[in-house]
Design brief:
Blueprint lengths: L3 E5 L8 H11 L3 E7 L11 H10 L4 E6 L7 H7 L3 E5 L6 H10 L3 E6 L17 E5 L14 H15 L4 E5 L7 H7 L3 E4 L1 H4 L5 H12 L6
Parallel strand pairs: 1-2, 1-8, 2-3, 3-4, 4-5, 5-6, 6-7, 7-8
């Protein structure tokens, strides 16, 4: 599988959001990643459908939305209307997970499931045949800039092994603390999508150089 780069706007300058999104698109990002937090599933509150609509208007890239919210099934239609291309819900927040993922697909979005660090990969085994992406949180949900939790590499490897054993093709995304120092290890473990915010938007030499560094690092390991 080709490794994709999803740039997380959580680390962007919101006073010039459209410009930031266009810059990472021009730099070669594959997806624009939007973290939605509600202050209940996570300590912080971030953005919602209006921000997704703004991002959608600024780019032709897929808009990859990560819902870190309780009762996500109540908001699926709103994010579809806002222009989300992919929509991830957390297994911990979604007691009717299979039904929610089916609804996401019916709305024309790519259904994705996310796991917090404490959640074992077996919790999503039964939905693997219907998802486009499994998003592995490599930090605790709730804030950008946290350090990568290396123990999550075992979870990535376990999911990659199940993907191969079942003959499936879902992406494995890693989200949290991703940078040039750990991109190769994540890819070698089976990740096919690197979600990076601070490593791109926080780079002092611009988006193009930051994206190039991540691509070079990811290229050091061939994905499974």
């Amino acid at each position: 599988m080709t490794v994709k780069l999803a740039t997380s706007i959580l680390a962007a300058d919101f006073s010039r959001l459209g410009e930031e999104v266009r810059a990472v698109e021009q730099a070669g990002a594959d997806w624009i990643h939007v973290d939605v937090m509600d202050g209940r599933f996570t300590p912080d509150i971030t953005m919602g459908p209006l921000a997704v609509r703004a991002v959608r208007g600024a780019t032709r890239l897929p808009v990859d939305v990560h819902l870190m919210i309780v009762e996500p099934e109540r908001h699926l239609d709103a994010f579809a209307r806002a222009g989300a291309t992919h929509l991830a819900v957390h297994v911990e927040a979604c007691p009717r997970l299979h039904l929610a993922l089916q609804r996401i697909a019916a709305l024309g979005m790519r259904p994705s499931v996310a796991l917090s660090p404490a959640t074992p990969p077996g919790q999503v085994e039964y939905v693997l045949p219907i998802v486009g992406t499994v998003l592995v949180m490599t930090v605790e949900p709730g804030a950008g800039g946290q350090p990568f939790i290396p123990e999550m590499l075992r979870k990535i490897r376990a999911l990659a092994e199940r993907r191969a054993a079942l003959g499936l093709t879902f992406d494995i995304a890693v989200d949290g603390g991703i940078g040039p120092d750990n991109a190769a290890t994540a890819v070698a473990s089976g990740a096919t999508v690197l979600v990076a915010g601070t490593a791109v938007f926080g780079a002092g030499d611009g988006a193009a150089a930051a994206v190039a560094r991540l691509r070079a690092a990811a290229g050091q390991a061939a994905p499974r």
